[in-house]
Specification:
The chain has 217 residues and is mainly beta. The chain contains three helices and 13 strands. The strands form three sheets. It has a six-stranded antiparallel beta barrel with strand order 6-7-8-11-10-9. Strands 4-3-13 form a three-stranded antiparallel beta sheet. Strands 1-2 form a two-stranded antiparallel ribbon.
Length: 217
């Protein structure tokens, strides 16, 4: 397993304007992967989050914090990104970081405390983006509100979008993208990082109830 960090492209050359920043590759540093036991208990329907423990520190280039406030309200615009499939540039999938604006919306099956939903209109997190962050850069630090769980196939969304651009009448309503809420799973994150995670809020890791059962691989 290779960990790529602190960059927005893999196997690329750095540009003078700073827009292209090659990610540094770290090999053979994964010590373990931890997940909530509830992920298995729910038959993979919930608790879609994992913490990867490394043998050495990896710089991210950001002051990164985990949201431990109320979930953002519908209409809030955050950012989501990942190195997954890009229907517009399939040859560059898995090589370049793609970032989209993500508008928070009500979940179609009712709001759950452990998930955050985003609108799916012309963009969405795609296959391979799982684990990517739902982010907000403000107040001088990066806040992680959630991680990519699942959503509509990007191939399907791209097909519908092309039909609309061609002037065809298409009546399709996508179900929305689902992100696992870091606020709900902050106790799990704190437990598996030995209170090393920074929380964006008044509390610290040591203030949280960390009795969740964890599976380690």
């Amino acid at each position: 397993m290779v960990i790529h960090a602190d960059g927005n492209c893999i196997g690329c050359k750095a540009s003078a304007d700073g827009k292209m920043r090659p990610a540094k590759a770290h090999k053979n540093i994964v010590m373990s992967v931890m997940i909530p036991k509830s992920y298995v208990g729910s038959k993979c329907r919930r608790s879609d989050i994992a913490v990867v423990r490394l043998l050495e520190h990896v710089a991210t280039g950001f002051d990164m914090r985990i949201s431990y406030r109320e979930k953002p309200v519908a209409g809030t615009i955050l950012s989501a990104g990942g190195f997954g499939y890009n229907p517009d540039e399939t040859d560059n999938s898995a090589r370049f970081l793609n970032v989209i604006n993500a508008t928070i919306t009500e979940c179609p099956k009712g709001n759950r405390k452990d998930v955050i939903c985003i609108e799916e209109k012309e963009s969405n997190a795609c296959r391979g983006d799982s684990g990517g962050g739902l982010l907000d850069l403000s107040d001088g630090h990066l806040t992680v509100y959630g991680v990519v769980a699942h959503g509509t196939s990007c191939k399907l969304m791209q097909s519908v979008l092309m039909e609309k651009r061609a002037g065809l009448k298409v009546h399709t309503k996508f179900k929305g993208g689902y992100f696992t809420s870091t606020e709900f799973y902050a106790p799990f994150i704190c437990k598996t990082t030995f209170d090393g995670a920074k929380l964006d809020g008044p509390k610290k890791c040591r203030d949280l109830d960390q009795n969740q059962e964890v599976l380690t691989f």
